[in-house]
Structure formats: structure tokens, C-alpha cells
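Dig into what follows:

_____
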Amino acid sequence: MKTHVELQGGVVMPVIGFGTWQCRNPQELERAVDAALEAGYRHFDTAYSYGNEKILGAIFSKWIREGKLKREDLFIVTKLPNQGVHPDRVGKFLKLSLNNLEMEYVDLFLIHNPAGLQTAENGIDVRYEENGEVALELTTTLPEVWKAMEEQVTNGRARAIGVSNFSVNQLERVVKNARIIPANHQVELNATYPRREIREFCAKYGITVCAYAPLGSPGRKAYYEKSRPNNAHLKVNVPNLLNNPIVIELAKKHGKTPAQILLRFLTQQDVIVIPKSVTPERIMENVKVRVAISNNCKKYCQFLLKKT
């Protein structure tokens, strides 16, 4: 199994990373990251908007200070928040992230979402309209923002840059005007949501693809119901991949867990994955996906044909 992929510009990225979305409890996150580091994870995915960069920075600094780790051993990904999607604010928000992470650079810096928002008077928080709606940023374009992203590579604050949650059209606009082609595109992707059009476009330009929610994000429904009570009436569709009968049968056949089968399904197609867990046992299991899934397995093929 391939353990790393080479990004545009020669930066090497581990295929399996550790996702940290929803992880804001300092004690819980420290236990999880300690377990991940001990299990061999070196790729960690965070974002300014996750609100956990400071916690992660303290954990990594402790490991480095104690001589257990070197900065160059890590591959750290963070993301530009929506209110930073403006050429005048890209550098500022990356500096904020670097300060939080206690680092001089990140290995990969992504535009978290293509839609920009205005900042409040403090220049950091999101501005809201009088009706309570977020204030959209309509004074710039994605190519202009991308130029500011390229400057972060030039000045050494980011080794590589990329995007997240972009459509093919949005990504194409960036690529056509880019001096530095995006190194990575992080999107929601799993066995039943293959994102073929985006993956084909990325392959054409040598852009690697990273899958968030590779297990279907089983905790997402509860998270949205808790964090967005006013929208509780909205249906949250979360595929129950871990309990899919075909996945369970394949797991038994190969002596693996359903999560390992789902992750291997993607990594076998050169898709980077960032599963998230705070349970040490699952953290250990998720990084051990060195299993070859036979393409001539009848039920596996049926699963692919039905779902992709």
C-alpha cells in the first residue's frame, strides 16, 4: 500500500491523516492526538474555523520539546476561514493560524470554502446583516484570492496550497489563472459518494484528492441537531456505511473492521483520507488499513456498481 503521495512542487503528504473537526475539548483532544501520534499518524488536519488550533499547537509543541518528535516529521493542514476569503486577509488569517499552532509554517494551506464572508469591525469575526444573515463578500474573485494564497508559498508560510469544497467550475477558474496549481482538493467523499467529476478534473491537472467524512461521518447528524437547533427540522442524510451488510461481510472476509475496509477502498484508488475518532482503539485501527481488497470479489463488485 502506498503510504504517501507527492503533491505539486514535490511536497510529500501521508495518505492517512487524522481529522479533528468537532474536537474542541482540550482533554479529549489531547488524549486522541497522543494516541494518534503513538499509533504513527503524522498527518493532522485542522482549520481556523474548527477552533482547536491552539490545543493542537500546545500538544505538538510538547512532543517536540520532549524530543519525541521533530517539526519536519509532521504534516499539518489548516484552512482559510470564510471571512478570510479576500486577497487582503489571506496572509492575516494564516498568521493567526500559525500563531495558534505555534509553528512557522504549515505543510498545506487550503481555502476552506469558495464563498467569502465580510469581517466585523474587529477584522476577524464574521459580520452579520441586520436581519441576522451573514454578510457575503462580493468585492473579490477566486483568482484574486488564489494569488494571495500563492504568496504564502513564496514567503514560506505554506509549503503547499489547495482548496476545499470547490465545484469543478470554481476549481477551473482558479487553475486557469494560477501560477501555482492547487496541490490538493479536500472534499466530502466516500464509498457511496465517489465525486467522479471532481476526481477526473483533479487527475487532469495533477491535483491530489483528500476525502473528509470517508466513513460517512456517522456523528454528523447528532452534531447538527445539537449545534443548530433552529434548523432541527432539516433532514441530515448520513449514509450508514459502517453497518452496510456488504462492508461487514468484506470486513469478516479480510479479518478487518468495517472502517478499515471503507478507508482501504479509497486509499486503493489513491485518495487521501482523514478519518476522525477520539477513541484510542479506533484511532489505532484506522491507520492499519494495509489490506488488498480483491476486485473480483462478487459482492464487492456489486457494492461498487450499485453505489458508485
